[in-house]
Amino acid sequence: MRYPKPSSKRTSGRNPIPKELLGEVSERDKCICQYCGVYCGNQIPHHIVPAGIGGKRIHRIENLITLCLDCHREAHSSKEMREWTYDWSRKKYGHAVDKLLKQKWSGRK
Question: φ and ψ at 88, to 5 degrees?
Fold first, then answer.
């Protein structure tokens, strides 16, 4: 399977994560970075399947993970970290992330 590298192009503000979904992610992850385990009051929800593929972020709980700032940066620069986030999602939600990747690669909405 190919693991895409996120785009460096910023899309903030154009497609914000719904507040209700942010609350669900915070509740699920208990405001703890899922990679290093540090409590992060100002957690950063990371899109596991990046917007750079297909141009639009997919806001679904199985595509969001709580990461601290350092781990979030690492997720955008490290292939190993991207693979770890895909595996994390698979453990929680089965192969939903693979379906999202396939959808993004095919260009379907």
Answer: -60, -45
pLDDT tens-place string over residues 72-81: 999 999 999 9
What six digits make up the tokens of 23? 């609350």
Instruction: Report pLDDT digits (tens) over 60-73.
Output: 999 999 999 999 99
CA distance linking residue 17 with residue 57, whole number of Å: 9
Contact 100, 62 (CB under 8 A): yes
In order of 5, 25, 32, 72, 76, the CA distances from 101 in angstroms are: 12, 20, 25, 19, 16
Which domains are seen in the chain, by residue range? 19-99 (1.10.30)
Q: pTM of the entire structure?
A: 0.77
3-class SS letters over 33-56: CCCCCCECCCCEEEECCCCCCCCC
